[in-house]
Write a structure and sequence with these properties.
By secondary structure, the chain is α+β, with helices and mostly antiparallel strands. It contains 2 helices and 7 strands, in the order E-E-E-E-H-E-E-H-E. The strands form 2 sheets. Strands 1-4-3-2 form a 4-stranded antiparallel sheet, covered by helices on one side.
Length: 134
């Protein structure tokens, strides 16, 4: 892991106490051929039935060893094995848990948690070509 970033954090409403909370999660991958890095961004949207109340987008960048990067190269882009993408996503989600803890400490949201997430279920193929370069 070469970089951690908080791309977005916002508390939109603090009136959600005692309400059922829904969490939606999305993953986004990008790569840079120049630096042999893969970025994983995870976005979270916490909401109640009535409204969205907290947004967090965090990103981790990972430098890939040159011997491994060569295995990812394809004529039409980069193909990253699903197992590698899962590993990067799991690390980014774990980092997000720490960010959420720090950002909400001392607020009414201090007890919010990011639950275990099945990242394998969020990805389609054994190998995916990651579109979008940094």
């Amino acid at each position: 892991m070469s970089k951690i970033a908080i791309n977005q954090f916002a508390i939109l409403n603090d009136n959600c106490q005692g309400k059922e909370i829904t969490l939606s999660t999305e993953l986004k991958f990008q790569y840079s051929e120049e630096t042999r890095q893969i970025s994983c961004e995870v976005g979270y949207r916490f909401s109640t039935e009535e409204e969205l109340f907290l947004i967090l987008k965090s990103q981790c960048d990972f430098v890939i060893h040159p011997d491994d990067w060569i295995k990812f190269e394809r004529v039409d882009g980069i193909a990253i094995p699903k197992s590698v993408m899962e590993l990067l996503a799991v690390h980014t989600i774990g980092t997000s848990r720490g960010i959420l803890f720090c950002k909400t400490e001392g607020t009414p949201f201090a007890n919010l948690m990011i639950p275990p997430i099945n990242v394998a279920g969020m990805m389609k193929d054994e190998e995916e070509i990651v579109s979008g370069r940094q």
